[in-house]
């Protein structure tokens, strides 16, 4: 019975929860704390803090943690799966429609016109990250160490095709010793 409850609770959250983990937080709290009473509010608060500290999507971390707390390993798999199931089904429907109609003029022009918009959004996000909080200079020249790390990383990924994970680790080491 607990597995059915886990599946239903997180399926509802997956269907009606738009806007990411923080937007789903009140729905998750209602299901976990208020409706099913799988944990107290204090335990839920601790779970939210742990979910923020662990890698991966916030809402999936909460689902995995709740499922494990309530139903062990299989509960964690079921809760995580039922949370992403609605998005997965919608994604498959959209992909099937796109592949079926990929030669349609309207779809072709829509998809091709989206590429520069997406590139622009990524570029704007990168520009917003280029601020004094992320680029410090420590009295050398304004922001030069952080800018050098940024430029070297860009060249290494874009031109030399070096694995980004290695660059993240290397940048972390440089940052540890320099800063």
Structure summarized in a few sentences:
The protein is an all-alpha fold and 179 residues long. Helix content is 79%, strand content 0%. It has helices spanning 2-16, 21-35, 41-53, 58-100, 105-129, 144-158, 164-178.
Q: What Rg, in angstroms, do the CA atoms define?
A: 22 Å
Largest sheet: none
Instruction: Calculate the mean pLDDT score and round it.
Output: 85
Structural class: mainly alpha
Secondary-structure element string: HHHHHHH
Helical fraction equals: over 70%
The amount of beta strand, in percent, is under 5%
What's the total number of strands?
0
Count of helical regions? 7
Q: Note the gap between the termini.
A: 53 Å
Instruction: List low-confidence stretches.
Output: none
